Amino acid sequence: MGVYHITWTEGLKEICLFMNSDGKCNFSCHGCVIEIYPLDIHLMLAEKSDARKKRKILSEKEVLSYLSPLSYEKVIFLGKEPSIDNTLVPLAKSLKENFSTYNIMLTNGYKFVVQNIDEVCISLKAITKEKFKNWTGVDDTETVLENFKKYVKTGIKVRAESVFIPNFIDDDEIEKIAKFIASVDKNIPYRIDGYIPERNDIFRAPTKEEIDEIENIAKKYLNNVTTLHKEIKLKYEVKEMY
Ligand code: SF4
Fold first, then answer.
1. What is the CB < 6 Å shell around ligand 1?
2. CATH number of the domain to which 118 belongs
3. CB count in 10 Å sphere of residue 204
């Protein structure tokens, strides 16, 4: 349990803390991006770091000492899977109390955690029970959807994201997800990520045209839809700090 990788985007005053709950997750997704690319995907795409390089887990004190020379305001907790890592809440508390950070958690939404968190980005994998089970290995679509509504009720900022996988999580499914988000609040920001296949994967990456098409479908229901895919160029340099 704890942080195993730190990146810093100076231009955004943003730190990413990658957490590892002993390599476990409460889901077991096909093509788990953090399993395939355990380091910051921006470094990986720029081929700036060795993804397989083993890193030791840092203590809270060590994390703070890596951050102390840096200028930052936002801290993003991500990895596999921050909500079930019991070092998350104390670390978020320490950062907030000592450095007045704005804390963001990227999560699959299956466990509800809000202490010391200012913003949450929830990955909505699927609405259709069968697709959700096939992808995550979990036979329970309701908990994530209920937690999504609960997060919104707390008043913290909520964002949603989904991975678009042609012929699996595609037009119909993304439309169902967009409709669900709109039923809660149509102004919730929604980002659609193009799937990144691994070698010999049974699924492929979407084309730019498919991404544009899916974006337009989601925009029928939501006011703030963006997409992320490998053709998008980075605006700010991401530096590996640990
Ligand atoms: S929820 Fe995220 S970390 Fe967990 S298995 Fe799925 S993709 Fe991986």
1. 25, 27-29, 32-35, 80-81, 108
2. 3.20.20.70
3. 13
